[in-house]
TrEMBL record:
DZIP3-like HEPN domain segment(s): 48-198
Stretches assigned to the Impact N-terminal domain: 406-509, 557-664
Name listed for the protein in its UniProt record: Uncharacterized protein LOC116292323 isoform X1
Organism this protein belongs to: Actinia tenebrosa
Basic residues bias spans: 685-695
Compositionally skewed regions (Low complexity) per UniProt: 674-684
A single GO BP: GCN2-mediated signaling
Cited Gene3D superfamilies: Impact, N-terminal domain
């Protein structure tokens, strides 16, 4: 029969239990956020906050936490809204504040750690912070119904309030009036009218606080696994049914009976088990038959089955039912015509134990089902939050006549989000769908496998997607997708190389303003000219011709190395040299084209230095070190490697260094010859006078 439909008014009506849950959530979220924020401001004063963030130790740990996804992209944006600015504690939610207190405020973890409930006697500040987190999980455990009965509410309210008040006292010791003010406010919360909209917001924040905490989902999984194991172990509790045969001369010959049964049913043991199962109450399962003494090991699936087993055992019905199987004419023949008595023995304590185990297993299974539901909710909330948090940044439109380019950027953590980004982008700006090209590239770091997932798409504009991806690699941008929408009045081929300047400028501007963590120092210098030079003038400028020197090849175990060198005067020319060099298809298809440059900036009286590995780990760094050591300037050196499939270990650095050093020496020799060959008029005149006197 179909169940009656739920009454919506019954589900949504206010109740004391629902109000209890709402008030406790409000105490945790609103009270907790303000109190923990005040604590953070006392430990790290707001005027010192940015200096603390930029301390090398702190900044590197922040980056590590971001890499491990402890700090989310949105929390990172709260800390660093742009590349050159810092966030304020008033912009931080309770989740981020808790992470900062735990990791950067020199607090010693409680003896049991941050994730366990401290002992009642431990009233230190770290212990109270751990309590807040622990009680948060207790409140969140009631999230499905959003209800708390009065006794549980009073218990949790007192514990959370006491912990919060001790935290307030910790940073307000000289100011008792502030402590009293907080105590009054918390007591007032018990009777204040409830704002439904505000309570929903607080509940959402509580969910996010729990889900953002990697420990929460991990705890759910661990507890679920523990309960699953417990259920399995509990279900394995057995009731042993001992079968005995007795006569005057041979009081027990169970061994012979066992042998006979094994021989008779060796080809079909399942039929014997089925026969025995049919003789047992419904709900009992034959787990095994122990040979030698004929012990039936049973497990029960219900309490009723155990009751039935006990009743039938005590009444003798069980013995009669089993005798039909174990007292056949063939078995009686083993006793040579003597009278045989068949008996069954069960330890009643085993039945009681099995009953207790069954009840415990049912309770554990129920808890496991609840945990599985919560784990699923946590995963769903995480996914929902991921989609909800999908924030697309739009760059400035770069225009040149009728041609327009605009970059868009979104923080992503999964390849599955690419389609979501495009759907959201087209919904946000329908003009994107009408673009001539929508070029894109993403770069995602997989912390578990310690690898990058990268992909790009030219959308019909040859090599442009690859260039965007290369740009993301150079800036070391990660967990990001960049989409460049291009509206061209002419074809990409007719626009030529200048279109890549449009794309580079739009992507650079967006990366620098979005707050995404990138290598900014070198990139800013790299694109200084692009950023400030009008594109109309850029098109008129001719790309200078470069004389590229090519070194001798070095071969070792099927790998080939060759160095190339060119004189340059700006960072922009590095790309121009690389483009010129890669017109040679063999070089373009090489496994690696690592490079380094060192350029002297006359205006700033400093060097622009950069190295790029192109996948050959430390290759670019070694080349840059070589340029520094030899004091080479205004030069780019490229080493091409065609990998032969055999790993060379450190020998590869020897070959990289050798071919690059030889080419640098060749350049140095050529420069010295040019210097010697250059004619100084005064020097020539002096030489002529000396030669005349000599004559």
């Amino acid at each position: 029969m179909a169940s009656a439909p739920a009454d919506p008014s019954e589900i949504l009506r206010s109740s004391t239990e629902k109000n209890n849950y709402t008030r406790l959530t409000r105490l945790l979220i609103e009270g907790g956020t303000f109190i923990l924020r005040e604590l953070l401001d006392k430990i790290i004063p707001p005027h010192q906050f940015k200096h603390v963030l930029m301390l090398p130790k702190v900044h590197s740990k922040l980056k590590l936490l971001k890499k491990k996804k402890v700090i989310t992209p949105l929390q990172w944006k709260s800390l660093f809204p742009t590349v050159t600015s810092w966030g304020k504690s008033t912009d931080f939610d309770i989740t981020l504040i808790f992470k900062l207190l735990r990791n950067f405020c020199s607090l010693t973890p409680p003896p049991k750690g941050w994730d366990e409930l401290p002992d009642d006697k431990d009233l230190t500040l770290p212990a109270d912070l751990a309590r807040i987190k622990y009680y948060r999980n207790d409140v969140y455990a009631h999230n499905d119904k959003m209800e708390l009965d009065d006794s549980e509410f009073q218990n949790l309210w007192k514990r959370i309030k006491d912990a919060l008040m001790r935290i307030v006292q910790h940073y307000n010791r000289p100011n008792p009036s502030a402590v009293l003010k907080w105590e009054t406010a918390i007591e007032k919360l018990l009777t204040d009218p409830l704002d439904i909209k505000k309570s929903h917001e607080d509940n959402d924040k509580l969910k996010i606080w729990c889900i953002d905490d990697p420990q929460t989902l991990s705890d759910l999984k661990d507890e679920n696994a523990r309960l699953k194991d417990q259920v399995t172990r509990l279900e394995s509790s057995l009731v042993n049914v001992h079968c005995n045969w007795r006569s005057r001369m041979q009081w027990m010959i169970a061994g012979s009976v066992s042998t006979l049964l094994i021989l008779n049913y060796k080809d079909d043991p399942e039929s014997l088990i089925n026969m025995i199962s049919d003789a047992l109450p419904v709900g009992l399962v034959v787990k095994s038959i122990v040979a030698g003494s004929i012990v039936l090991q049973l497990t029960s699936t219900s309490d009723e089955a155990l009751n039935d087993l006990l009743t039938r055992y005590q009444s003798g019905q069980l013995r009669e039912d089993l005798a039909k199987i174990f007292m056949t004419e063939e078995i009686k023949a083993l006793f040579d015509g003597q009278d045989v008595e068949f008996s069954v023995e069960i330890c009643e304590e085993e039945i009681e134990n099995a009953r207790r185990v069954l009840i415990s297993a049912a309770e554990a299974e129920k808890k496991r089902e609840e945990l599985t539901k919560k784990e699923g909710l946590a995963q769903a909330l995480k996914k929902t939050k991921l989609t909800t948090d999908l924030n697309i940044f739009d760059g400035e439109i770069v225009e040149d006549g009728e041609n327009r380019v605009q970059a868009h950027l979104a923080v992503i953590t999964s390849k599955d989000q690419v389609e979501e980004v495009f759907a959201e982008l087209k919904k946000k700006d329908p003009g994107v769908d009408e673009a001539t090209h929508n070029i894109w590239a993403y770069r995602i770091f997989d912390a578990e496998r310690n690898v990058y997932h990268e992909h790009c798409d030219d959308d019909g504009d040859d090599t442009s997607g690859a260039r965007v991806l290369r740009f993301l690699r150079r800036t070391n941008a990660m967990n990001v997708i960049v989409v460049v929408s291009c509206w061209y009045e002419t074809t990409a081929d007719e626009l030529g190389e200048v279109r890549f300047k449009y794309i580079q400028k739009s992507v650079l501007d967006l990366l620098l303003t979005s707050g995404i963590e990138i290598r900014t120092s070198k990139i800013k210098k790299y694109f200084e000219e692009i950023k400030y030079t009008p594109f109309e003038k850029m098109k008129e400028q001719e790309i200078p011709k470069f004389e590229i020197l090519h070194g001798e090849t070095i071969e070792d175990r099927k790998s080939t190395f060759q160095a190339h060198l060119a004189d340059i005067t700006s960072r922009e020319q590095v790309d121009q040299v690389l483009d010129e060099l890669k017109k040679d298809r063999k070089i373009a298809k090489a496994t690696y084209n690592m490079w380094a440059c060192r350029i002297y900036d006359e205006k700033k009286k400093s060097y622009i230095e950069e190295g790029y590995d192109d996948g050959e780990n430390l290759g670019g760094e070694r080349l840059l070190h070589l340029l520094q050591r030899s004091d080479a300037k205004n030069v780019v050196i490229i080493v091409t490697r065609w990998h032969g499939g055999i790993h060379l270990g450190n020998d590869r650095f020897k070959h990289i260094n050798k071919c690059a050093s030889d080419l640098l020496q060749r350049r140095k020799t050529a420069e010295s010859r040019t210097s010697t060959a250059s004619t100084d008029p005064k020097s020539t005149a002096t030489k002529k006078k000396k030669s005349k006197k000599h004559k």
